[in-house]
Amino acid sequence: MRRACLLRYAATAGLGLAALLAPAPGFAKGPVSVADIAEGLQDAVVNISTTQTLKERNGSPPGRKGPKTSPFDELFDDFFDEEGPDGSPRKVSSLGSGFVIDPSGLIVTNNHVIEGADEIIVNFTDGSKLKVIKILGHDPETDLALLQVKPRKPLKAITFGDSSILRVGDWVMAIGNPFGLGGSLTVGVVSAVKRDINAGPYDNFIQTDAAINRGNSGGPLFNMDGQVVGVNTAIISPTGGSIGIGFAVPSNTAVRVLNQLKEFGETRRGWLGVHVQNVTDEMASTLGLEEPMGALVASVAPEGPAGSAGIKPRDVILDFGGQSIRNMRDLPRAVANGTVGADVLLKVLRDGELLDLTVTLGRLPASEDDEAIETEDSDGVKELLGLTIEPLTADLRAKFEISGTVDGVVVTAVDPDSPAAKKRIEVGDVIVEVTQEAVHRPEEVVARLRAVEKSGRRKILFLLANADGDLRLVNVPIS
């Protein structure tokens, strides 16, 4: 009897244990799998390998805009760096990602992945390789490039989705080539949209916590419908690896740029011809605004579209073609996306009165491709190469006792660990010329620096003046 009772207890206990071990129905297989979506996409995601010859023995490849520890790290990965004898050329090979958008052989990647490359090879998931026969176009401002290969048979291609409907919290998926590990997939959410990381005048990034690393650059960011909603471009990483903060160019921006690259081999951005700044709290009431908003016109190019339309300094542009301008950064994006030659209605606040003006949008000249509209902080302060630089105002001239014969941009702070500090640039020094061109505003210094970076040079030449006007030349390393 007792034995029967024990057996009965054991059976009951066994059933209880089985019940405890059985997974709850809702968590039987974990979160919903993305395997079915990914299976149809991986063949269209490719690895991009490039090779280029550098004549300079020291320095990083032209495609890299900063050291590996820079905060806004690129995702492009050097995997082979062979140095020849002193002064001899060396070859650098690099890996990135890309994706097919047309079965006939059109492939998207980042501009910095292929910039300066002597040879570009596209590697597919089945092990096949194709050499890029033509770079149809590239755009440094959005960091996009369109490549052409000649396949033996139609390629698997993927389509773009609408990035404008993305919301914070939406699930996204990245596929790419991190650290040379092709076909890697990660999943995360949209952390933010319309993110400005000060990479350029058209910043409008999608931020995601989907793990992306070096080598993912140029790869696609997908929505859960398997459509490309972004092109992975940059990460914040003090370590060089993913810390969950990555950035992608929105698909709507990419499609517009890629269509122009395909048709014209270049981008054709709108041009307004104004120099703008933010409206501060102090300015708002003076300008007749209840709160700081809009883009304040600081100057107008006399023969530019804005000048012809009657836009004047001190005007506040509040709306461009139906797009609300909340701050100065909104305007360059809106203008760049406009159609060259089109008439656009602007809402402008002038002396407290709201005006409607019509401007015929011009085309941004190629020589001004750094930015369609110059922008600056309200005080004009810029930071670069460890230097804080500001316009040489009367107050700063008096503060640093700078001679009235000196003109340029004044250094107001120096990072003691920066290359500039090692070159003995000091607070109170005035940058008179950059690469033998006179400068009068901080943004002119920035523009010269960008031009030097794009040329592939590793140093930038400053002509400096001290407070007494004594001049000296200083060659400052860029990275």
TrEMBL record:
GO terms for cellular component: periplasmic space. Residues 1-28 form the signal peptide. Its main location: periplasm. Its EC number is 3.4.21.107. Keywords: Hydrolase, Periplasm, Protease, Repeat, Serine protease, Signal, Stress response. Substrate binds at residues 112, 143, 215-217. It catalyses: Acts on substrates that are at least partially unfolded. The cleavage site P1 residue is normally between a pair of hydrophobic residues, such as Val-|-Val. One of its GO terms (biological process) is proteolysis. It holds the Pfam family Trypsin_2. This is Probable periplasmic serine endoprotease DegP-like. The lineage of its organism: Bacteria, Pseudomonadati, Pseudomonadota, Alphaproteobacteria, Hyphomicrobiales.
